[in-house]
Specification:
heterodimer; A: alpha+beta; 8-stranded mixed beta sheet; 6-stranded mixed beta sheet; 22 strands; 29% helix; 22% strand; elongated; B: alpha/beta; Arc Repressor Mutant, subunit A; Dna Topoisomerase Vi A Subunit, Chain: A, domain 2; 2 domains; 3-stranded antiparallel beta sheet; 17 strands; 40% helix
Amino acid sequence: MDSSAARGATAQDLARKQREISVAEFFEKNRQILGFDSPQRSLATCVKEAVDNSLDACEEAGLLPDIYVEIRRAPGDAANLFRVIVEDNGPGIVAEQVPRVFGKLLYGSHFHVIRQSRGQQGIGISACVLYAQLTTGRPALVLTKTAPDRPASRVELTLDTRRNEARVLRREEASWDRPRGTRVELEVRGAYFTGRRSVPEYLRACAIVNPHARITFLDPEGMEARFDRSSDHLPRLPGESKPHPGGTEMGTLLKMVEHYAGALGEFLQGEFARVGPKTAREIADAAQMDPQMRVGDLTRGQAQRLVESFRRVKLLPPSADSLSPIGEDLMFRGLQKGVTADFISVVTRPPGSHGGHPFIVEVALAYGGAAPREEKVEVLRFANRVPLLYQPGACALTHAVERVHWRPYGLDQSGESLPQGPALLLVHLASTHVPFVSESKDAVADIPEVLAELDLALKQVGRDLKGFLSKRKGIEKRREKEDLIQRILPKLAEKVGGVLQRPPPDTAPVVARIMGNLLLQRDGARLHAANHGEAPRRFHLAARSHQVRKEWDLSLEPGARRTLDFPADHVHVEGLPAEMVTLGRGLAPLDDGKSPRGPVTRVHNPGRREAPAGPTSSSLAPLPRTGATGKRETSPTTLAAFSAEPEKPEEATRP
Amino acid sequence: MSPPKTPRKPASGNGNGKAKKLVGLVELLYSQMEKGEIPSLDVATRTKQNIEYSESSGVWVYGDATSSRSAKTARGALQLLKTTSVVEFLKHQLEVDKSSTLRELYYISENWEDAKFPDQNESDRLIEDLEILVELQREQFHIRSEESGASILGPLEIRERTRRGPKKIHCEDDVGESGYTIPTQVDNIEFLRHDARMVVAIETGGMYDRLVENGFHDDNDAILVHLKGQPSRGTKRLLKRLHGELNLPILVFTDGDPWSYRIFASVAYGSIKGAHLSEYLATPGAKFIGIQPSDIVAYKLPSDKLTDQDIQALKAELTDPRFDTPYWKKEIQLQMDLGRKSEQQSLAKYGLDYVTDTYLPERLQALGALKK
């Protein structure tokens, strides 16, 4: 029988069947773990991997990224074949390296460097090349140029899965009008959608956390969307860092020891982050070893003791120099441009560490605007500035949001779930080592240190939201009261005058007193300004009497009054909201076009930051769009709730 | 019998003077606004915390606490607009010598837009405010209540000034089974002669009819007054005049529950909402017959369980200065301990004559109104 024959196979028989499996072959069979499980997702993954690489490359070269993404239907009848093109203005790739970068899995520049980057393992783009070749049989096309005065090289390649090496089909010099950059073209099987977890969604999210990047996207219908820059500052390039003892495992240590000739003390100080002479001595003491011993003589047992003492000795947390958070300012700008909101709060937490890896948590909350009121809030998750689109339910970034009790902060919530209300949350984890739950890098694992920091950050924006909401309520209440007072008091004056058969008294002084307003009153040839509020008022007063115009800068303490010898008939106050100013009888608003600006509009200036007077030409087309084909979308940003001018900033809630 | 005295505050009189008093309020508002001040009127606070015992008159009147009706709030501004609107209306009413009821005033406000009253309670309260502010009774600025007449029956002859001329009426001989109906303007009545030793004021119609049917008034020379629940101003004014002018003891007979004690208190001491009228309406000498909580025990009366509202009301009475006497403290505490209340008519347990043959004689003797 076959089975007994199999059972009777000798070790030699088995040995004949045993052979090495290349990584490439492994991934060929298990491509879902790299993010190629559905046609829709596969398409998004190809865009994502290429864009991540482009952003990393530009930033490392100190260039403001300008990235062009195009998805085109492949020629022919097949509706599920697409050509993905991603082009950047990065530093380019040296021609000899192209096969390895694009045609070899686990080849990259980031894996052995401890610093925050989007790509880490060097799998992404080569996996895309592999995916293209598996689904369409077409080679990848790479065009790259490293300097304006050098020719570009054009390479066609596929992946030899058995040897995990590139198979270059064609390599030639080419001309390219860009001074430098890289363009990748892949033909893949996929499905193009808009909406959640789509390519446009990914790019929108990307634009929000990379306000320094310009991203242009041409979709299969030929429609162009442009995400312009809202910042011309590149994020600080994080420094490379040495390994922190807290995160060093046995294997790593043995490898580090292998080529080191010197004493233990020097080794600890020189090769690890955050280890000075004192800490080095403490580590050696804890391991009961002599700091003077030669590292080369380290036994396996001693190495084991050393790793254990790494855990026992109190260490400074890893330095955050190797991290590059987005920063509160840029998160604010990114959101301000990317969504409509009445209020934005942003928090960048101080660095923390998990397992010897530094990390920083950032959270932003945008409230109001066009966000739907009855639905769960949208949570945009990011890890090292890369949008995470899949597996939200498995991700610590989602869990942290769900675990906060949002009701006290003004959002609805049922049980431990995402809150409900007109809000959007941006949650970012930056780390030299993002603890993903799987190789497809969709979800962050529930690391207690990370969850705790997320919790603090989320509660911080929650408190800000609560403050904003109660302030807004106060303003609404005041407005309601004012509306009523403005309606009732003139009637009262009318009625009181009617009963007494006298002219009705002027209600302006009374209204000003009731509302705590600034009162401007004409009295014969003079003009009175009185502050009935509870706070000092500084303002600029412009007044006109017939054709004469005068201006004053005034500052009035609560209850104070100034008399100006000027028979004004028209006045204008700058520096105070219009509703805080009451004009007495005989005074009209001054509107002669000479006022530097009109009455201050009622806007809620969001967040703890002043809204920057950003370039108004920038635009972020909302996606998906339904405009005419080929027509360039330049619809203005939907920022009606923001003032175009820097308003008086709300008091900062944090320094 | 003693000669009738003239009523202290005649209801008719100089309409001009009253209008002037009302318009004075508006003048105050006008001058406040003219000076740029926030217009406001201060009215005595009408809560039980702000009533105090007046040694001179023996009734409860308002203390010094005042509440401000100020335009500082939108509500207050609206209140002042309503006040002014009412004054305007009253001024006109006095000028043309017309009168209206509280309910009519409420409906008239339908045309006042923002100053329209949402319900009659509010317009009634505003009229009370005005009574306090200008120290006039609403009748004096021609606002009547809706009060359907309570009844009086007994050996008393009166003369009432009516629109059809003066009428002389004997409250027993000239009236039917239900007695003489007390008019709103009690001060239009003149007492001519009487044959009574006491006045018994009864809360419920059923008990009033029982005493009439049993001839209690005849047997005991009593004037019976039907209070019809919480008595109207007219009824209270009549009781006060019967006591003051004819020197008759006033004995109040109600159900045995917290709401009935309040009826007694408003007859004897004045009401919280109307303490500005106490000196005009309250009869400090009035005595409480029952049903007392101790009667529930003593007479083994059929009883009902106290409701939550009853208990709340009893608790409130324990902090009500009008009930701050050892007698009331003891009785109220007893009732809370019993957890029961009894109606007047529960005395029927022992037969229809029991109330007139046994209960009332026993209680009236105890109060010294009947000799043993």
